[in-house]
Amino acid sequence: MSRLLGGRRAVRAAGVVGTVLLAMTGAAVGTVVPATAAPAVAVRAALPDDGGINPGDLLTAHNFIMQLDGQSVEFISEVSSLDPANHAVTLSRGSFHSPIVQRWIDDAIAGREGRLKTMTIGICDYAGNIVKRYNFGGAFVEKIVLDNVTHEPSVLTVRYFTIAVS
């Protein structure tokens, strides 16, 4: 079975997205953040030809993890917008939808006390280790887009009060 490779265009696009995110948040380029162990829910895919995932594989093109109040809860397939001027970020959820995130969405819609969370979006490397973190303080779900098939929230617009990059 042949390996799925993203090619130069995918690698270039990933680099541009990372550069834009860094520029929008004012983070210093070249800052080294120690990697941490992958969460227990990480899915490890093995390819038949060499038994592992390598840099540039399509399976690792959009590899983000969401943490709420320090607990890893869900993988994010895409961060489509980060707007520091309006304190908003738009996230596309992965295929696994955590009940913890669903409760957070319900709390935000109902205006309950538990709606404000410390949300972290971690950017993972090809092995599932977090290499950069975007910490959003006072985060709450402002808008949801439902999936046409499952009718579950698939895209979240999250508002926040503070942002820090580590």
What would you note in describing this structure?
The protein is an alpha+beta fold. It is built from 2 helices and 7 strands; from the N terminus they run αβββαββββ. A 6-stranded antiparallel beta barrel has the order 1-2-3-6-5-4. The longest helix is centred in the first third of the chain and has 19 residues, at 7-25. The termini are far apart. Mean pLDDT is 75; it is low at 1-11 and 27-50.
- Taking pLDDT < 50 over at least 5 consecutive residues as the criterion, the unreliable ranges are 1-11, 27-50
Helicity, as a percent range = 10-25%
| Alpha-beta classification | alpha+beta
What's the rounded overall pLDDT mean?
Answer: 75
Element-by-element helix/strand order: HEEEHEEEE
The percentage of residues in β strands lies in 35-45%
| Total DSSP helices | 2
**Main sheet: strand order:** 1-2-3-6-5-4
Keywords:
single chain; 166 residues; alpha+beta; six-stranded antiparallel β-barrel; 7 strands; 19% helix; disordered N terminus
Task: Give the topology, please.
Layout: H1 7-25, E1 64-68, E2 71-83, E3 88-93, H2 99-110, E4 117-124, E5 130-146, E6 153-159, E7 162-165
Antiparallel strand pairs: 1-2, 1-4, 2-3, 3-6, 4-5, 5-6, 5-7
Summarize this, please?
This protein is an alpha+beta fold.
